Amino acid sequence: MKDYCIEKLYECSKKPYQKYFKKNEPWKINKHELLHYPEDSLGFGLGNFLFNNHFDIQEKLEDHDIIHVLTNTGISVVEEIGMQYYLLGNGKKSLYLFLVIASGTIFYPKQIKYFIQQYKKGKEALTFYYLDFSKMLFMPIKSIQQSFKI
Question: Which residues of the chain have pLDDT under 70?
Answer without folding.
Answer: 1-2, 5-6, 8-23
